[in-house]
Write a structure and sequence with these properties.
- 37% of the residues lie in helices and 15% in strands.
- By secondary structure, the chain is of the alpha/beta class.
- It folds into two domains: 110 residues, Aspartate Aminotransferase, domain 1, CATH 3.90.1150.10; 216 residues, Type I PLP-dependent aspartate aminotransferase-like (Major domain) (Aspartate Aminotransferase, domain 2).
- The strands form three sheets. Strands 2-8-7-6-5-3-4 form a seven-stranded mixed β-sheet, sandwiched between helices. A three-stranded antiparallel β-sheet has the order 9-12-11, covered by helices on one side.
- Helix 3 runs parallel beside helix 9.
- The relative contact order is 0.16.
């Protein structure tokens, strides 16, 4: 038998070689988790009860999502064929890009925003086009409208946006939907619970509207990887064609109904975060730390040139924060998740020490 000598490994598609790889800093996350906008406490106790009730035989079967999707739809006031559960919102974005973006198409979104839009958009043969926000990070409506072309096939609007916490108003979203009837418009409401503004009620009424939600944030299920897309049935049929039928695992499907049913726990956590956010905003103001208005469970602050030193100083004090200085327009910025009032008082004490350690002074 002739010896096979491989000169090189097979090359991936050109689009993959151009991809903006995303490597989240997940190593060594011990301490107060204020870096990934997760629930900083835990999921509902009912979720643990649901996990305990899973039999070994249940894990030997492929997952079936239809019944749980119907429950989610009922919870949101939608029809069952308007809801698609996904392996986190990350998979939802990936499925949308694979469904709508081809060579010559355009994927449009404001920046700064969630990194995975660009990651999955750049994995296609479409053109990724971004619209910079102004210095106050307000939603750049006029610039976005002016950037829509006949080639625009997908538009993403995160509201509240990450890492800024800014919100696009209902009227602004409607203007985008009206201006781009030929494009699918994703409104990513991952942080909906902390602001209360939504366009979910328009799903099915506006033919090009798609709304994403996650169960990783307020519900505290980040480890189970659960997200969803709400869209008209005519859109969902194509999304279901693209998505893997087994991408949402049985454990996640078993736990989600329990999380949805415990509305009291969800309300407690959301109200606690809102109260802590109010305290945090005022404390930062008194400290003289520049910040931007937020309607999410995080705050973007301006540390300046020593932002990296600040993140490390906080880490040494057991508080994890996220350096967002590489995001467009965010030079010198750090994002801090908002947890409970008790947690944020601990974080503020650590912050005062960290700022003193790095020699930070008010601008």
């Amino acid at each position: 038998m002739a010896e096979i000598v491989l000169q090189q490994t097979p090359a991936p598609r050109a689009a993959v070689q151009r991809m903006h790889a995303y490597h989240p800093p997940l190593g060594g996350r011990q301490g107060l988790r204020l870096d990934f906008n997760e629930n900083t406490v835990a999921c509902s106790p009912r979720v643990l009860q649901a996990l305990a009730s899973i039999a070994a035989a249940d894990l030997a079967k492929y997952p079936e999502r239809a019944q749980v999707e119907a429950k989610v739809a009922q919870h949101l006031g939608l029809d069952a064929d308007q809801v698609l559960l996904t392996n986190g919102v990350d998979e939802a974005i990936h499925v949308l890009c694979q469904t709508y973006l081809d060579r010559g198409d355009e994927f449009l979104f404001p920046v700064p925003t969630y990194s995975m839009y660009e990651v999955y958009g750049s994995c296609t043969d479409a053109r990724v086009r971004t619209v910079p926000s102004s210095e106050d990070f307000a939603f750049p409506l006029e610039a976005l409208l002016a950037s829509i072309t006949p080639e625009t096939r997908l538009i993403a609007i995160a509201s509240p946006n990450s890492p800024t916490g800014a919100v696009a108003s209902r009227q602004q979203i409607l203007e985008v939907l009206h201006r781009a009837p030929h494009a699918a418009v994703l409104v990513d409401e991952a942080y909906y619970h902390f602001c209360g503004q939504t366009v979910m009620d328009l799903v099915g009424e506006v033919p090009n509207l798609i709304v994403a939600r996650t169960f990783s944030k307020a519900y505290g299920l980040a480890g189970l990887r659960l997200g969803m897309l709400a869209a008209p049935a005519a859109i969902q049929q194509w999304l279901r064609t693209v998505i893997s039928p087994y991408s949402v695992n049985s454990l996640a499907l078993a736990c989600l109904p329990a999380a949805l049913d415990d509305e009291q726990y969800l309300q407690w956590y959301v109200e606690e975060v809102k109260a802590a956010r109010t305290e945090m905003v005022e404390s930062l103001r008194q400290m003289g730390v520049p910040q931007w208005p937020t309607q999410a469970n995080f705050i973007l602050v301006k540390i300046g040139p020593r932002h990296g030193e600040f993140v490390q100083a906080m880490f040494r004090r057991g508080v994890l924060t996220r350096d967002r200085s590489k995001d467009p327009g965010c030079d010198g910025c750090v994002r801090m998740t908002v947890g409970t009032r008790e947690q944020m008082r601990l974080a503020l004490a650590a912050m005062a020490e960290a700022l003193h350690e790095i020699g930070w002074e008010k601008a």
